[in-house]
Amino acid sequence: MATTTMTMARALNEGMRRAMERDPKVLLMGEDIGKLGGVFRVTDGLQKDFGDDRVIDAPLAESAIVGTAVGLAMRGYRTAIEIQFDGFVYPAFDQIVSQVAKLHKRSKGVYTMGLVIRLPYQGGIGAVEHHSESPEAYFVHTAGLRVVTPSTPHDAYWMIQESIAHDDPVIFCEPKSRYWDKGEVDLDDPGPGLFDAVVRRPGTDVTVVAYGSMVKTALRAAEAAAAEGTSLEVIDLRGLSPFDTDVMAASLERTGRLLVVQEAPPYASVGSEIVATLTERCFYSLRAPALRVAAYHVPYPASRIEDVFRPSVERVLDGVDRLMEYDQ
Amino acid sequence: MADELVQLLSPEGQRVDHPDYECSLDDTAILGLYRDMVIVRRICNEATALQRQGQLALWAPVQGQEAAQIGSGRALAPGDFVFPSYREHGVAWTRGIPPADMLRIFRATETGGWDPQRYHCNLPTIVLGDQVPHAVGYAMGIQRDGAEEAAMVFFGDGASSQGDVMESFVWAASFMAPVVFVLQNNQWAISEPTSLQTKIPLYRRADGFGFPGVRVDGNDVLAVYEVSRRALERAREGGGPTLIEAYTYRMGAHTTSDDPTRYRVDAEVEVWRHRDPIERVKALLAREHAVRSSTFEEVAAEAEAIAQALRADVLAMDAPPATDMFDDVYAEPHPWTEAGRAEVLAFAEEAR
Predict the structure, then answer these.
(1) b/e A112-130 (16+ beta carbons within 10 angstroms → b)
(2) Does B133 contact A67 at a Cβ distance shorter than 8 Å?
């Protein structure tokens, strides 16, 4: 078994390299992804190795980046787009929801919209305005799109390849605060499927569902809770559209308590949908109302105070306490 | 305007010399273009009637723009790919799309209407300008395939204000994409005149992006054909993009939901009635090529038969089964979409 240690940024780079080697129709497109290797260096060296016909430095126009990728898809190309930052995806929103999401349907399956929109998202890096957002719910809400988010280098390596190979459009959300975390990557065995949730830490008292950057936060909380005698089961969601109801339900039926942790604001969010879905599915297993630990209904704040906005270990533990109190 | 407008046939049907363009078509070909325009106008009138009779949800009349669409559409090679907006029924006709298929989206029995790969013609695009970057991206695919093909994309004076159109101009120029932009300036974006969209002639916008722009008499099918043919050749040979502004007029309403009497005067419409794209070709054919009135009558009879067949096809066009909404949303089944399908089927089963 060939495993190697690398950062998530490197794993994404290696994954895209594999995808490009495997399929000559795979292209990369984005702003500054060529010589510079992207502002996060995720595409470092790929233009040098695959040429500027396949690793395309795009003019600074997000709508046209997505719009031209649609045209390329109509000609059989699979373009993995890099949107430089989450907050810059909105100029392309029309193309994504009106065109990318609908053209397979409108053409009765003739067009394959096999493109990937990579979105460095979430905060926690002390960035300035428009560089720390969590827009995943917009895309999860749109039929025709799929949305995934890795939390480990291993998943980043495999999920980017699987997303590029997928015939549906995939919004690929990359937790930028975890780009430089290192982890083991198994180069032979992808493990679970693209949309499967994974139990990262088994436990018995509370099911904690997290995704992207919040998986690490939830795992830290689980350690702290264990020290206080509470056992958290931490699930890494991975797929957001669709999400893996079965894995979450199996856990919740054992623990009876559900806590969803996300960086996005709570209202009409992925967390809202998980709570609604699992309440319906596991109603008689619930020992407490399902709770969300999320951001607040405000624009992403000045990053000097982002640690209050983003769920912290302490806030996760507070959520756990609130759940446990229902038994007393 | 006159000195910058490419025109090869006057409104009276007289040949006009132009320093850069000349008509390459023989009388048979010109008669073919005449036939196309007559049929497309007849299809359009039938569709308007069908809408008035409650058989279509909406119709976007093409009347007045037949030359702009037939001239450009007939200049395409079979391997080229065309990206229409929602009024390009003439272009669709040149791609061989059955008229009934053009009306499916307007009867609201489908959200598309035809197989875009089969006809090398994309589906109608209603969000203004969205199709323009698609054409540029498709053209970038042509480049990567090393094919001698071109993309041609249609939009209007209103859509010319869209950011996607501007962005597409940048991209096409930077990548020298084999794409021809056909801007049909029909003078009105619903109620807004072209003067609200631009302070310079629209074809001159190309200058600012670094590729040629040409204004052609959009009611002169011979001129539109030649200008389009040259632009397509240039694109296929690696010369990059061209912007063609087809200067024309929307004789009818924006759509069947529109009332143009609220924003434009009859006198303006009358001026353009004298510039009709079909009458001038008919005058040319009768005078120069001695085409007899019986030939014109045959064309009219053929158009009438096509319109009657279209009517029958449309009336026979039923709503799809309700579960059609769940088909092809995804290439592979998505559990949330399939949950909806199961619910609709179960609900129908219970109701039986």
Answers:
(1) bbbbbbbbbbbbbbebeee
(2) yes
